[in-house]
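Good morning,

Attaching, inline, the backbone tokens for the sequence recovery test we're adding to the shared suite. The designed sequence is right after.
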């Protein structure tokens, strides 16, 4: 695999062998296969980021068979800018590959001022999807998600809005994110009754965040719904990045992100022990963290972030070793539960 920085600014041609090495997994009971590793654009793709780096990350990903790019209305900063940049790069580099891509967006968190730019009303979801399509220059997204549960809007209204977007041709499939198992089940039942089955659930899942193991993964399996795990590297904590301190160019060092230095410091003893286990397995910690999630075939894909093409390539190597022996599983569990 290689970094795709062929710097001809106008002409990008994906490499011919891009599908040779990637593993694709079926998303629940659907017709869709997703790459085992997908790329999220939450960070590193906004107006404050370097567009050429972003472009090389996308090219590198696509050249390695990563066919799924995940966005949301408010990714940036500022809000909307990741979609706008992605739209620009899609037009420049990927227009001819649109039918080889699964592009997702979401609405559910704060997006615009006033009572209609947040949470789960039909008004918000439909308007937000229209805005996302405009920013990305797309006729449709492949997956449109409700980003988080809204306790004050009837679930029928929110799921009805997702179904409506599919019927309008603005989304091919729908998903939900951050829903607990019981509410997810209700959402699946409503969507099924409307004739738009839920394709996928996007929960936070990593070695450091294992809530999905209690009920959610079982519920998804029972309903034939796929699972794409977000922040599988715990925003970079499950990599070698922080072992010797907090680098200046890291997410934890930048003030405006959701990763606090104190969080990293609290996890450091576990990070170091996990790193040791990874080395004994012949992997980097980031690779082991991804392999560990993918050993469960109920996990369709892991949705990583990357601030450079090299990080992405590093992480793709996790696919070369997905098996764990009992001793490794036990040692990892001991560290995680200590
Ligand atoms: N549905 C939701 O509510 C929700 C919430 C959050 C995220 N998401 C989705 O999930 C995607 C991924 O989330 P995430 O960015 O938090 O995922 P992550 O994969 O846990 O963290 C990505 C960060 O880890 C570091 N990293 C990655 N590979 C590395 C490597 N090999 N070596 C060293 N450091 C490495 C980089 O940090 P540095 O930038 O510090 O280099 C990178 O930006 C998002 O883009 C978004 O699509 C969804």
């Amino acid at each position: 695999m290689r970094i795709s920085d062929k710097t001809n600014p106008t002409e990008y041609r994906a490499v011919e062998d891009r599908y040779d090495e990637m593993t694709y997994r079926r998303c629940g009971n659907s017709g869709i296969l997703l790459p085992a590793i997908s790329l999220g654009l939450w960070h590193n793709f906004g107006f404050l980021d370097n567009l050429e780096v972003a472009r090389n990350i996308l090219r590198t990903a696509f050249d390695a068979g990563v066919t799924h790019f995940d966005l949301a209305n408010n990714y940036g900063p500022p809000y909307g800018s990741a979609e706008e940049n992605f739209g620009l790069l899609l037009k420049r580099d990927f227009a001819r590959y649109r039918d080889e891509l699964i592009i997702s967006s979401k609405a559910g968190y704060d997006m615009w001022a006033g009572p209609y730019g947040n949470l789960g009303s039909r008004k918000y979801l439909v308007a937000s999807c229209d805005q996302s399509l405009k920013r990305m220059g797309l006729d449709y997204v492949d997956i449109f998600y409700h980003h988080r549960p809204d306790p004050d809007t009837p679930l029928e209204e929110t799921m009805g809005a997702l179904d409506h977007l599919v019927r309008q041709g603005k989304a091919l499939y729908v998903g939900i994110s951050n829903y607990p198992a019981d509410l997810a089940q209700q959402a699946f039942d409503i969507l099924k009754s409307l004739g738009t089955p839920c394709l996928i659930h996007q929960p936070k899942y990593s070695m450091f965040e294992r809530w999905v193991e209690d009920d959610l993964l079982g519920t998804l399996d029972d309903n034939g719904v796929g699972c794409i795990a977000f922040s599988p590297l715990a925003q970079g904590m499950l990599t070698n990045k922080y072992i010797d301190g907090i680098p200046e160019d890291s997410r934890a060092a930048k003030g405006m992100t959701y990763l606090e230095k104190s969080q990293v410091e609290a996890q450091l003893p576990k990070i170091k022990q996990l790193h040791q286990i990874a080395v004994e397995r012949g992997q980097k910690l980031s690779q082991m963290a991804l392999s560990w999630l993918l050993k469960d075939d109920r996990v369709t894909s892991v949705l990583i972030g990357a601030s450079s093409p090299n990080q992405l390539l590093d992480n793709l190597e996790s696919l070369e070793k997905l098996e764990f022996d009992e001793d490794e599983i036990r040692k990892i569990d001991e560290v995680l539960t200590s």
